[in-house]
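note to self: the first set is below, dont mix up w the second
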Amino acid sequence: TKLTDAETKLRVGVHWDTEVATGEGEKPFNVAQVYCSAVPVGYDYRTPQPDWEPLARLCLNGAYDATLAVAAILARKKGKRINVFLTKVGGGVFGNRDEWISDAIKRSLDKFKSEPI
């Protein structure tokens, strides 16, 4: 389908082992970071928000799928369960509806439910 073709074009950036700046005397640690974005629906004043929904949902689904896929790869590589911290990608001034964001998170969590994340 065209939607599947579009999904294959989505990309994210990954820093697999990034040191976190810590305060004085705190032990440094590393994290993986997934860089992604959502459709900036809130910046287009001419197009009605519902017209953006299919593309916005596509990008949100891809962002959360990629984030959890990175976590699954790391969990398998390390042989243990790892923590994942998700943010509301596309919320706020980007204007993606909370419903779209929460649906994407739930969808991705269900997709990766068998992974140790």
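second set (the one i keep forgetting abt)
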Amino acid sequence: MSQIDPTSVNKIAEKRPVILFDNAGVGRSGGQVPTSYSGWADYCAELITQLGFGQVDVLAFSMGGCAAQMLALNNPTLVRRLILIGSLPSIGPGVILPPPEPFQEIRKAHDRESQEAAMLNFCFHSSEGSQAAGRATFRRMLEARDDWSDLIDIDGTQRQIQAFAKFMNPELASEGSYKRFNELRIPILIIRGFHDFVFERQTCQAMAKQMCNAAVSVYEFPGAGHAPHWQYPEEFAELVDCFLCATDTTKIPELPVHWVRWINGTDLISKI
């Protein structure tokens, strides 16, 4: 939880209860990192059940969003609304695999300086404005906690890699999310940065179209990389609140930033 921006989380928490947690083997949570995203989802479902919640809204970023997809698919009555940020679907037609180099830089980061450099390269665009937003994000994360938790160890990293490899293995496609997206019948908000090299626009469009029975909205933030919610924390929090409160999630109000929006993967609405 050390790598969570307090600005957006606190703003969201002004209007509703927010529960943050590290999955098994991450941060200060015990146990081993599961080697499949379904395994990650099982821990999420167990936590939600043990806390006594019958239904929740789920927000997840990057790999966490892969697990959130499986959580919603494997527990169809547990998730009321789903928000995915920069989250790849499992392998399928139209899905573009990200380059490996930035992932390798993150795995090699061993101190605060290298962690910041890796985060700036992986999560933010190379423009001056995006990099400045990234440095500000990292400062907020550090200042929010006196007990910053270390990054995941080598064994945990390898197990995360195994989970991602399975998700992207065509031979295991039936165990992933892409082929099952038609099962989802809930409101879904997908968020990406315009320059996100992990979650490419083509992948995003293929994913949204595959969710043919869900009420899907896609927002794309300009000038942002893999972590648009960190670059635009206040606007992101406003979007989340609108989505969670809306009676009709396909009619979310305009944001005070430029954006591109798809509805159900077909209609394109631009505000640029």
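remember for set 2: The CA atoms of residues 235 and 255 lie 7 Å apart.
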